[in-house]
Amino acid sequence: MRLEIFFLFLMVGILAQAVDGALGMAYGVISSSVLLAFGVPPAMASASVHAAEVFTTAASATSHAAHRNVDWRLFRPLAVAGIIGGVLGAYVLAGIKGDVIKPFVVAYLALIGVWILWRAARGVQPRRLASWTTWPMGLVGGFLDAIGGGGWGPTVSSAMVGAGGEPRRAIGTVNTAEFLVTVAISATFVWSLVTGHWQEAGALRNHGAAVAGLVVGGLIAAPFAGWIVKRVPRTVLSYAVGALLLILAVFQGLQLAGVA
After folding, report:
1. Cα–Cα distances in Å, from 219 out to 27, 170, 175?
2. What is the pLDDT of residues 94-141, one digit of tens each?
3. Calpha distance 134→111 (Å, rounded)
4. Which of 6-10, 23-27, 106-110 is most confident?
5. What are 152-172's pLDDT values in tens digits?
6. How many Å apart are CA 141 and CA 159, to the nearest integer?
7. DSSP sequence for 85-131
8. pLDDT attached to residue 189
9. Which of 249-257's residues contact partners 24+ apart within 8 Å by CB, and which partners?
10. Is the Cβ–Cβ distance between 151 and 104 less than 8 Å?
């Protein structure tokens, strides 16, 4: 049974990381959604996904850096803000249920998805983003990522592209910063476990096969992230990001309604 779970989540990891590497979002959302569908509690799902992402984001960040998809001017403040928001979110999630803010996240995804599609249809050209704008994006994105088990990419990549950032640079920068944010969130979960703040963490060992599958599947797909983003046209990326946000919003909305 554990072997079957491993291969199932291996395929989930490959699919989720392929989408995430190309569009700058969806690994955490897809992976955590599948875990939640298997009955894994929100905090455990988030901790499991972030444990896997420590490895996959490292590989993805290396790929984006190698293909020069990273705007280092925006990377530094984005990473610092993301770490602060992620640590706070992980600590909060260890003590409460993360579903409380889920409806607001769904509404955000839908609105930003429509906005990005509108910009792509109008042919609006990307513009240079000021570095200070990444601070609020990083804080909110890191917090939502820890709370929801995935949300860094949908929140921050969409905000940067929606604000007029060049899609390739936005995706590469966000994916690279995600590695540091993920490490910080995972460390906070470990700290919560050690200090006793997280009472139900002991059951994490029951999901080891799923985490291992996510790690291996993600590592298989992650090295291709930078190459894909570098070669896909800007307009196509914009349409793809907007469409994916709407799909994620609809799917999570159906989950909240008890349909999916």
Report:
1. 12, 22, 14
2. 666 556 666 776 776 677 678 778 877 777 666 777 788 889 999 988
3. 19
4. 6-10
5. 877 888 788 878 888 888 888
6. 9
7. HHHHHHHHHTTS-GGGGHHHHHHHHHHHHHHHHHHHHHTPPP-PPPG
8. 77
9. 249/106, 249/107, 249/109, 249/110, 249/113, 250/110, 251/33, 252/29, 252/33, 252/102, 252/105, 252/106, 252/109, 253/106, 253/110, 255/33, 255/36, 256/99, 256/102, 256/103, 256/106
10. no
Q: Answer yes or no: are the C-beta atoms of 143 and 178 closer than 8 Å.
A: no
Extract the tokens encoding 19. 């989408």
| Structure tokens, 127 | 């513009």
Q: Which amino acid is at 8?
A: L
Spell out the residues 6+ positions from residue 47 whose beta carbon is closer than 8 angstroms to its own. Answer: 186, 189, 201, 204
